Amino acid sequence: MEAWKRIVIKVGSSSLTDESGRIHSPKLQSIARGAQILAEKNGARFALVSSGAGAAGKERLGLTRPLTLPEKQAAAAVGQALLVLDWAQAFVPLPVAQLLLTASDMQERERYVNARNALEASFRLGAVPVINENDSVATEELKFGDNDTLSAWTAYLMDADVLVILTDVEGLYDSDPRLNPDAKQIGIVEDVSEVEHLAGTAGSKRGTGGMITKLGAARIATEAGIETLIIGGGGEGLEALARGKVQGTRIRARKPTPARKAWLSQQACQGQVLVDAGAVRALSEGKSLLPSGVIGLNGSFEFGDAVTLVSEEHEIGRGLSNYSSDALKLILGLQTHQIFDVLGYKDYDEVVHRDNLVLIR
What is the CATH number of the domain that holds 292? Predict the structure, then answer.
Protein backbone atom coordinates (compact mmCIF):
# COMPACT_ATOMS: atom_id res chain seq x y z
CA MET A 1 0.00 0.00 0.00
CA GLU A 2 2.96 2.32 0.55
CA ALA A 3 3.51 2.32 -3.22
CA TRP A 4 0.02 3.59 -4.05
CA LYS A 5 0.40 7.04 -5.54
CA ARG A 6 -2.70 7.07 -7.73
CA ILE A 7 -6.03 5.64 -6.63
CA VAL A 8 -9.39 5.28 -8.37
CA ILE A 9 -12.39 4.86 -6.07
CA LYS A 10 -15.62 3.67 -7.63
CA VAL A 11 -18.82 4.36 -5.70
CA GLY A 12 -22.06 2.68 -6.77
CA SER A 13 -25.60 3.92 -6.29
CA SER A 14 -26.20 1.51 -3.42
CA SER A 15 -23.30 3.08 -1.50
CA LEU A 16 -24.75 6.59 -1.93
CA THR A 17 -28.48 6.15 -1.48
CA ASP A 18 -30.91 5.17 1.27
CA GLU A 19 -33.43 2.34 0.98
CA SER A 20 -35.86 4.59 -0.91
CA GLY A 21 -33.21 5.36 -3.53
CA ARG A 22 -32.53 8.95 -2.49
CA ILE A 23 -29.01 10.38 -2.26
CA HIS A 24 -27.95 10.24 1.40
CA SER A 25 -25.56 13.11 2.18
CA PRO A 26 -23.97 11.50 5.28
CA LYS A 27 -22.85 8.59 3.09
CA LEU A 28 -21.17 10.98 0.65
CA GLN A 29 -19.45 12.83 3.48
CA SER A 30 -18.19 9.57 4.98
CA ILE A 31 -16.79 8.42 1.62
CA ALA A 32 -15.14 11.81 1.01
CA ARG A 33 -13.49 11.66 4.45
CA GLY A 34 -12.35 8.08 3.93
CA ALA A 35 -10.97 8.85 0.48
CA GLN A 36 -8.93 11.76 1.80
CA ILE A 37 -7.56 9.73 4.71
CA LEU A 38 -6.57 6.94 2.33
CA ALA A 39 -4.90 9.34 -0.10
CA GLU A 40 -3.10 11.32 2.61
CA LYS A 41 -1.60 8.08 3.94
CA ASN A 42 0.91 8.05 1.07
CA GLY A 43 0.49 11.50 -0.44
CA ALA A 44 -1.51 9.89 -3.24
CA ARG A 45 -3.84 11.46 -5.76
CA PHE A 46 -7.28 10.01 -6.27
CA ALA A 47 -10.27 10.22 -8.58
CA LEU A 48 -13.84 9.26 -7.81
CA VAL A 49 -16.07 7.40 -10.25
CA SER A 50 -19.55 8.09 -8.94
CA SER A 51 -22.93 6.68 -9.84
CA GLY A 52 -26.15 8.22 -8.53
CA ALA A 53 -27.06 10.86 -11.12
CA GLY A 54 -30.13 8.98 -12.27
CA ALA A 55 -31.32 8.46 -8.70
CA ALA A 56 -30.82 12.13 -7.85
CA GLY A 57 -32.61 13.26 -11.00
CA LYS A 58 -35.62 11.00 -10.48
CA GLU A 59 -36.03 12.30 -6.94
CA ARG A 60 -35.75 15.94 -7.99
CA LEU A 61 -38.28 15.47 -10.80
CA GLY A 62 -40.65 13.51 -8.59
CA LEU A 63 -40.60 10.47 -10.88
CA THR A 64 -41.52 7.09 -9.43
CA ARG A 65 -42.81 5.23 -12.51
CA PRO A 66 -40.62 3.36 -15.03
CA LEU A 67 -38.97 5.84 -17.41
CA THR A 68 -38.48 5.89 -21.15
CA LEU A 69 -34.93 6.22 -22.48
CA PRO A 70 -35.26 9.97 -23.18
CA GLU A 71 -36.70 10.44 -19.68
CA LYS A 72 -33.77 8.52 -18.18
CA GLN A 73 -31.39 10.77 -20.09
CA ALA A 74 -33.20 13.87 -18.85
CA ALA A 75 -33.19 12.56 -15.27
CA ALA A 76 -29.45 11.92 -15.53
CA ALA A 77 -28.91 15.46 -16.82
CA VAL A 78 -30.83 16.94 -13.89
CA GLY A 79 -29.28 14.58 -11.38
CA GLN A 80 -25.68 15.04 -12.49
CA ALA A 81 -25.75 18.71 -11.51
CA LEU A 82 -27.22 17.85 -8.12
CA LEU A 83 -24.78 14.97 -7.57
CA VAL A 84 -21.71 17.10 -8.26
CA LEU A 85 -23.00 19.78 -5.88
CA ASP A 86 -23.38 17.11 -3.19
CA TRP A 87 -19.81 15.92 -3.79
CA ALA A 88 -18.53 19.50 -3.78
CA GLN A 89 -20.07 19.97 -0.33
CA ALA A 90 -18.69 16.66 0.88
CA PHE A 91 -15.12 17.49 -0.20
CA VAL A 92 -14.96 21.07 1.12
CA PRO A 93 -12.43 22.73 1.12
CA LEU A 94 -11.10 20.74 -1.87
CA PRO A 95 -12.47 21.81 -5.27
CA VAL A 96 -14.27 19.20 -7.37
CA ALA A 97 -13.85 18.72 -11.13
CA GLN A 98 -16.63 17.03 -13.10
CA LEU A 99 -15.65 14.78 -16.03
CA LEU A 100 -18.35 13.05 -18.10
CA LEU A 101 -17.13 10.30 -20.42
CA THR A 102 -18.50 7.92 -23.04
CA ALA A 103 -16.98 4.76 -24.45
CA SER A 104 -15.87 6.63 -27.58
CA ASP A 105 -13.61 8.74 -25.35
CA MET A 106 -11.65 5.53 -24.75
CA GLN A 107 -11.92 4.05 -28.23
CA GLU A 108 -10.73 7.09 -30.19
CA ARG A 109 -7.08 7.74 -29.45
CA GLU A 110 -7.27 11.56 -29.69
CA ARG A 111 -10.22 11.75 -27.30
CA TYR A 112 -8.49 9.30 -24.98
CA VAL A 113 -5.46 11.59 -24.80
CA ASN A 114 -7.69 14.64 -24.27
CA ALA A 115 -9.49 12.94 -21.38
CA ARG A 116 -6.15 11.96 -19.87
CA ASN A 117 -4.88 15.52 -20.13
CA ALA A 118 -8.00 16.86 -18.42
CA LEU A 119 -7.43 14.45 -15.53
CA GLU A 120 -3.78 15.40 -15.20
CA ALA A 121 -4.61 19.11 -15.20
CA SER A 122 -7.24 18.56 -12.50
CA PHE A 123 -4.65 16.88 -10.30
CA ARG A 124 -2.10 19.63 -10.85
CA LEU A 125 -4.66 22.25 -9.87
CA GLY A 126 -5.56 20.41 -6.67
CA ALA A 127 -9.07 19.33 -7.69
CA VAL A 128 -10.78 16.01 -7.00
CA PRO A 129 -12.01 14.54 -10.33
CA VAL A 130 -15.56 13.18 -10.02
CA ILE A 131 -16.26 11.04 -13.07
CA ASN A 132 -19.46 9.58 -14.44
CA GLU A 133 -20.72 8.23 -17.73
CA ASN A 134 -22.36 10.84 -19.92
CA ASP A 135 -25.77 9.17 -19.76
CA SER A 136 -27.53 12.25 -21.13
CA VAL A 137 -26.09 11.81 -24.62
CA ALA A 138 -24.60 8.30 -24.78
CA THR A 139 -26.46 5.88 -27.01
CA GLU A 140 -26.12 2.13 -26.63
CA GLU A 141 -23.06 1.78 -28.86
CA LEU A 142 -21.31 4.62 -27.00
CA LYS A 143 -22.01 3.39 -23.49
CA PHE A 144 -19.72 1.59 -21.08
CA GLY A 145 -22.92 0.13 -19.69
CA ASP A 146 -21.91 0.39 -16.05
CA ASN A 147 -19.63 2.46 -13.87
CA ASP A 148 -17.58 -0.54 -12.81
CA THR A 149 -16.24 -0.75 -16.37
CA LEU A 150 -15.84 3.02 -16.47
CA SER A 151 -13.78 2.89 -13.27
CA ALA A 152 -11.38 0.39 -14.82
CA TRP A 153 -10.90 2.66 -17.82
CA THR A 154 -10.40 5.63 -15.52
CA ALA A 155 -7.64 3.64 -13.83
CA TYR A 156 -6.06 3.29 -17.29
CA LEU A 157 -6.38 7.01 -17.95
CA MET A 158 -4.54 8.07 -14.82
CA ASP A 159 -2.02 5.21 -14.60
CA ALA A 160 -3.51 4.19 -11.27
CA ASP A 161 -1.79 1.80 -8.90
CA VAL A 162 -5.04 0.50 -7.46
CA LEU A 163 -8.76 0.44 -8.24
CA VAL A 164 -11.01 0.39 -5.17
CA ILE A 165 -14.61 -0.63 -5.87
CA LEU A 166 -17.00 0.18 -3.03
CA THR A 167 -20.05 -2.04 -2.79
CA ASP A 168 -22.80 -3.02 -0.36
CA VAL A 169 -21.22 -6.42 0.37
CA GLU A 170 -17.75 -7.11 1.70
CA GLY A 171 -16.16 -8.51 -1.42
CA LEU A 172 -16.53 -11.80 -3.24
CA TYR A 173 -17.93 -14.95 -1.62
CA ASP A 174 -17.79 -18.60 -2.62
CA SER A 175 -21.61 -18.56 -2.83
CA ASP A 176 -24.38 -15.99 -2.52
CA PRO A 177 -24.31 -14.71 1.09
CA ARG A 178 -27.93 -13.58 0.76
CA LEU A 179 -29.00 -17.18 0.24
CA ASN A 180 -26.32 -19.12 2.08
CA PRO A 181 -25.47 -18.01 5.65
CA ASP A 182 -22.38 -20.24 5.52
CA ALA A 183 -20.93 -18.48 2.48
CA LYS A 184 -17.22 -17.74 2.92
CA GLN A 185 -15.53 -14.55 1.90
CA ILE A 186 -12.62 -14.84 -0.53
CA GLY A 187 -9.80 -12.63 0.72
CA ILE A 188 -7.22 -12.82 -2.08
CA VAL A 189 -7.57 -13.71 -5.76
CA GLU A 190 -4.48 -14.35 -7.87
CA ASP A 191 -6.25 -14.60 -11.24
CA VAL A 192 -9.71 -13.13 -11.79
CA SER A 193 -10.57 -15.79 -14.40
CA GLU A 194 -10.53 -18.40 -11.62
CA VAL A 195 -13.43 -16.77 -9.75
CA GLU A 196 -15.63 -15.28 -12.48
CA HIS A 197 -18.02 -18.21 -12.20
CA LEU A 198 -18.83 -17.09 -8.64
CA ALA A 199 -20.15 -13.69 -9.72
CA GLY A 200 -23.83 -14.63 -9.84
CA THR A 201 -26.21 -11.82 -10.81
CA ALA A 202 -26.61 -8.15 -9.93
CA GLY A 203 -26.94 -7.75 -6.18
CA SER A 204 -28.62 -4.40 -5.64
CA LYS A 205 -31.85 -3.08 -7.10
CA ARG A 206 -30.49 0.46 -6.81
CA GLY A 207 -27.56 0.03 -9.21
CA THR A 208 -26.86 -1.26 -12.71
CA GLY A 209 -23.93 -3.47 -11.76
CA GLY A 210 -23.42 -6.58 -9.68
CA MET A 211 -20.41 -8.74 -8.96
CA ILE A 212 -20.29 -9.73 -12.65
CA THR A 213 -19.44 -6.20 -13.73
CA LYS A 214 -17.03 -5.74 -10.82
CA LEU A 215 -15.03 -8.80 -11.81
CA GLY A 216 -15.17 -7.62 -15.43
CA ALA A 217 -13.66 -4.33 -14.32
CA ALA A 218 -11.08 -6.20 -12.27
CA ARG A 219 -10.07 -8.18 -15.35
CA ILE A 220 -9.51 -4.98 -17.36
CA ALA A 221 -7.56 -3.33 -14.54
CA THR A 222 -5.43 -6.29 -13.44
CA GLU A 223 -4.46 -7.05 -17.06
CA ALA A 224 -2.94 -3.55 -17.07
CA GLY A 225 -1.05 -4.16 -13.81
CA ILE A 226 -3.57 -2.34 -11.59
CA GLU A 227 -4.47 -4.08 -8.35
CA THR A 228 -8.21 -4.18 -7.65
CA LEU A 229 -10.01 -4.22 -4.31
CA ILE A 230 -13.71 -4.92 -3.89
CA ILE A 231 -14.67 -3.74 -0.41
CA GLY A 232 -17.70 -2.86 1.67
CA GLY A 233 -18.30 -0.34 4.41
CA GLY A 234 -18.37 2.90 2.43
CA GLY A 235 -16.21 5.60 3.98
CA GLU A 236 -15.44 3.40 6.98
CA GLY A 237 -14.16 0.75 4.59
CA LEU A 238 -11.81 3.30 3.04
CA GLU A 239 -10.56 4.40 6.46
CA ALA A 240 -9.97 0.77 7.40
CA LEU A 241 -8.03 0.33 4.16
CA ALA A 242 -5.82 3.28 5.14
CA ARG A 243 -5.01 1.34 8.32
CA GLY A 244 -4.06 -1.71 6.27
CA LYS A 245 -7.28 -3.70 6.65
CA VAL A 246 -9.10 -4.92 3.54
CA GLN A 247 -12.81 -5.36 4.25
CA GLY A 248 -13.39 -7.42 1.16
CA THR A 249 -11.49 -9.08 -1.68
CA ARG A 250 -8.07 -8.19 -3.04
CA ILE A 251 -7.41 -9.15 -6.68
CA ARG A 252 -3.73 -9.11 -7.49
CA ALA A 253 -2.46 -7.39 -10.63
CA ARG A 254 -0.85 -9.35 -13.41
CA LYS A 255 2.33 -8.32 -15.16
CA PRO A 256 1.22 -5.13 -16.91
CA THR A 257 0.62 -4.95 -20.62
CA PRO A 258 2.22 -1.86 -22.23
CA ALA A 259 -0.31 0.97 -22.10
CA ARG A 260 -0.88 1.29 -25.84
CA LYS A 261 -1.38 -2.44 -26.30
CA ALA A 262 -3.66 -2.56 -23.26
CA TRP A 263 -5.70 0.17 -24.91
CA LEU A 264 -5.79 -1.78 -28.17
CA SER A 265 -7.00 -4.96 -26.48
CA GLN A 266 -10.18 -3.24 -25.33
CA GLN A 267 -11.18 -1.50 -28.56
CA ALA A 268 -14.43 -2.10 -30.41
CA CYS A 269 -13.36 -3.63 -33.71
CA GLN A 270 -14.87 -2.57 -37.04
CA GLY A 271 -14.14 -5.76 -38.94
CA GLN A 272 -12.24 -9.03 -39.14
CA VAL A 273 -9.04 -9.87 -41.01
CA LEU A 274 -8.62 -13.59 -41.70
CA VAL A 275 -5.02 -14.81 -41.65
CA ASP A 276 -3.27 -18.04 -42.63
CA ALA A 277 -1.12 -20.36 -40.52
CA GLY A 278 2.10 -18.72 -41.68
CA ALA A 279 0.87 -15.34 -40.50
CA VAL A 280 -0.07 -16.81 -37.13
CA ARG A 281 3.49 -18.08 -36.70
CA ALA A 282 4.96 -14.75 -37.76
CA LEU A 283 2.72 -12.77 -35.40
CA SER A 284 3.60 -15.07 -32.50
CA GLU A 285 7.27 -14.28 -33.18
CA GLY A 286 6.62 -10.55 -32.83
CA LYS A 287 6.41 -9.73 -36.54
CA SER A 288 3.90 -7.52 -38.37
CA LEU A 289 1.00 -8.73 -40.50
CA LEU A 290 1.76 -8.49 -44.23
CA PRO A 291 -0.73 -8.72 -47.11
CA SER A 292 0.67 -12.13 -48.05
CA GLY A 293 -0.69 -13.58 -44.81
CA VAL A 294 -4.24 -12.30 -45.30
CA ILE A 295 -6.74 -14.73 -46.85
CA GLY A 296 -10.00 -12.82 -46.36
CA LEU A 297 -11.89 -10.19 -44.40
CA ASN A 298 -15.32 -9.39 -43.00
CA GLY A 299 -16.95 -6.03 -42.37
CA SER A 300 -16.18 -2.53 -43.54
CA PHE A 301 -13.38 -0.46 -42.02
CA GLU A 302 -11.16 2.48 -42.80
CA PHE A 303 -7.49 3.30 -42.32
CA GLY A 304 -6.68 3.40 -38.59
CA ASP A 305 -9.73 1.40 -37.46
CA ALA A 306 -9.32 -1.44 -34.98
CA VAL A 307 -9.78 -4.89 -36.51
CA THR A 308 -9.87 -8.42 -35.13
CA LEU A 309 -7.31 -10.89 -36.48
CA VAL A 310 -8.88 -14.31 -36.93
CA SER A 311 -7.41 -17.73 -37.74
CA GLU A 312 -9.68 -20.74 -38.23
CA GLU A 313 -12.58 -18.86 -36.61
CA HIS A 314 -10.54 -18.09 -33.48
CA GLU A 315 -9.56 -14.56 -32.50
CA ILE A 316 -5.80 -14.31 -32.19
CA GLY A 317 -5.32 -10.58 -31.80
CA ARG A 318 -6.41 -7.01 -32.45
CA GLY A 319 -4.71 -4.19 -34.24
CA LEU A 320 -5.03 -0.96 -36.19
CA SER A 321 -5.34 -1.47 -39.93
CA ASN A 322 -3.08 0.49 -42.28
CA TYR A 323 -5.52 -0.11 -45.13
CA SER A 324 -9.27 0.23 -45.60
CA SER A 325 -11.33 -2.89 -46.22
CA ASP A 326 -11.81 -1.85 -49.87
CA ALA A 327 -8.05 -1.54 -50.39
CA LEU A 328 -7.26 -4.71 -48.47
CA LYS A 329 -9.61 -6.74 -50.68
CA LEU A 330 -7.40 -5.82 -53.64
CA ILE A 331 -4.03 -6.64 -52.08
CA LEU A 332 -4.73 -9.62 -49.80
CA GLY A 333 -2.38 -12.49 -50.52
CA LEU A 334 0.08 -10.28 -52.42
CA GLN A 335 3.73 -9.57 -51.73
CA THR A 336 4.57 -6.09 -50.45
CA HIS A 337 6.32 -5.09 -53.68
CA GLN A 338 3.03 -5.68 -55.54
CA ILE A 339 0.96 -3.21 -53.47
CA PHE A 340 1.87 -0.14 -55.54
CA ASP A 341 1.13 -1.88 -58.83
CA VAL A 342 -2.42 -2.72 -57.65
CA LEU A 343 -3.37 0.36 -55.64
CA GLY A 344 -1.22 3.02 -57.28
CA TYR A 345 0.28 3.86 -53.88
CA LYS A 346 1.99 2.08 -51.02
CA ASP A 347 1.90 3.95 -47.73
CA TYR A 348 2.80 0.88 -45.68
CA ASP A 349 4.31 -2.55 -46.23
CA GLU A 350 2.27 -3.91 -43.33
CA VAL A 351 -1.48 -4.40 -43.02
CA VAL A 352 -1.05 -4.19 -39.24
CA HIS A 353 2.28 -3.08 -37.79
CA ARG A 354 3.54 -4.99 -34.75
CA ASP A 355 3.57 -1.77 -32.70
CA ASN A 356 -0.17 -1.43 -33.32
CA LEU A 357 -0.94 -5.08 -32.58
CA VAL A 358 -1.81 -7.00 -29.43
CA LEU A 359 -2.16 -10.79 -29.37
CA ILE A 360 -4.90 -12.41 -27.32
CA ARG A 361 -3.66 -14.61 -24.49
Answer: 2.30.130.10
Instruction: List the alpha helices (DSSP H) in 43-92.
Output: 53-61, 69-90
Q: Calculate helix-pair angle for 25-42, 69-90, nearest 10 degrees.
A: 60
Q: What average pLDDT does range 224-235 have in this prediction?
A: 90
Q: Which of 77-86, 104-113, 156-165 has the lowest mean pLDDT?
A: 104-113
Tell me the C-alpha distance between 129 and 8, whole Å.
10
What's the confidence (pLDDT) of residue 259? 60
Residue 69, exposed/middle/buried by CB under 10 A (0-12, 13-18, 19+)? exposed
Burial class (CB in 10 A: 0-12, 13-18, 19+), 62: exposed
Same domain, 226 and 328: no
CATH number at residue 12: 3.40.1160.10
Work out the average pLDDT over 250-273: 77
Q: Are 261 and 190 contacting, i.e. CB atoms less than 8 angstroms apart?
A: no
Residue 233 and residue 312 in one domain: no
Quote the CA–CA distance of 361 and 315 in Å, as a whole number. 10
Contact call for residues 160 and 48 (beta carbons, < 8 A): no
CA torsion through residues 286, 109, 230, 241, sign: positive
Alpha-helical (H) ranges within 195-276 are 211-223, 234-242, 259-265
- Which residue range(s) make up the domain with 288? 269-359
Q: How many CB atoms lie within 10 A of CB 348?
A: 17
Decide which of 261, 280, 306 is a domain's last residue: 261
Determine, yes or no, domain membership for 165: yes
Q: Is residue 1 part of a domain?
A: no
Of 229, 261, 293, which residue sits at a domain end?
261
State what percent of residues in the chain have pLDDT above 70.
Answer: 91
pTM to 2 decimals?
0.73
**Distant-in-sequence, close-in-space partners of 19: CB < 8 Å, separation ≥ 6:** none
- Distance, CA of 154 to CA of 124 (rounded, Å): 17
- Do the beta carbons of residue 100 and residue 133 sit within 8 Å? yes
Could you tell me if 235 and 111 lie in one domain? yes
What pLDDT was estimated at residue 143?
A: 55
CA distance 14 to 20: 10
User: Is 70 exceeded by the pLDDT of residue 58?
Assistant: yes
